Request: fold
Amino acid sequence: MLPMDRLPNILSKQLILPIIFLCPGLTYSQDEERVLDSQSNRLYNTVEEFPGKGIQFLDQGLVIDAIDYFDNFLKENPENFEAWYLKALAQEKSLDYRSAIHCLETSLRINPAFAEGLFSLAMLYYKTGNYQAAKEKFEHLADMPLGETNAVYFRGIKYGEDARDTEFNQLISMANKEADIYNYLGLCYLKAGDPAKSINFFNQSIQSRDNDDNIYVNRGLAWSQINRNDYAINDYRKALSINPDNMLAKLNLSMIAGDSTGIPDPLFGLAGIDMPEVFAYRAYIKFNGGDLAGAISDYDSAIFLDEDNPDFILNRGIVFEKANEFELALKDLRTAELLEPGNPKIYFHQGNIYFKLKHFSQSINSYTRAIHLEPGNGANFYNRAISYYYLNQPDSACLDAVRAVNLGMKEAEPFVEQKCPGKY
Reply:
């Protein structure tokens, strides 16, 4: 654990969110050219071979190719609910949440009893801030018998401070998701302003899985909202007894206490930490856990308390970017640029947003500014290469992609192999 007297400075460095590479991982309509070849000669269209290469593409991070595969399969098998489900997983991985939701809804229209699809749809609604729709789906799940999974390829979903995107390689039982269903029902009611009812669902979640520190943290938040800080402190302490490194439990406990009285030893240093840093770090944790709305709310609080902190504003812009709120993201990035014009991450994320908006000339300009400030970062060259490719400038695209590879960017190697054979 970091020495507490160093924590604020370390936090300010950690708060810059991880880079999200543009390709592979962006979805476009079928009539548009994609960054990578569809590799149609490698696709399989028979039920016996399904899901075939589609799964391999997902595991290799070739999301566009996975979507191509499932598109081709669905042309011949439009009523295959599992294919719609798998295509949705690929689209979610590419951050195309709207299309993913559409595919999951189609899968459930074909098979309304498909619990795995309903769970994924509920999670996507929650992830995109549609808590009412998420609540309805989780309530439906709570009323369904949850037996062994019948999905070909079901991806488990983590939540809490240590959550990360998982690989598409878990075949699990829906029976094991009961605690998650009740936990998210509790979170939905918490978001809806009904903490008392949320506590009932957190209780049910804990009955199903009593060793999950994150559920105790969530129930602690609910207790705090009905002014039962004594119960909240007990839940945060319980969370820390399970996982001493649960930062959300530490931060929430320190904010409740206001001083060192009754705070466990690991929290002595946090009791006096600057509140903007507390909100900002909690926002970072929520971002990693997929709670984009919660992360934005905490960055709002951090910025209110420290309005000239460029890291806070940049990070909120990155969260807006992931939430597909591009105008708000660009506004924050412009503000961060005024405060810290020499930060290459500002221009990198500007480039990402312009790319997603299909403004490829503007994305090239932004990536070029990032390259001038950080010429050793292969991600800047790789993403500019993809933008050049979409502008039908293959020579410039290959030149940048090769530079990216030379800078250690392994993600660029498939592009060079497929698009630039024998040129460099």
User: Anything to note?
Assistant: The longest helix spans residues 63-76. The chain is about 60% helix and 0% strand. Confidence is low (pLDDT under 50) at residues 1-48, 148-172, 259-272. The CA atoms of residues 61 and 73 lie 19 Å apart.
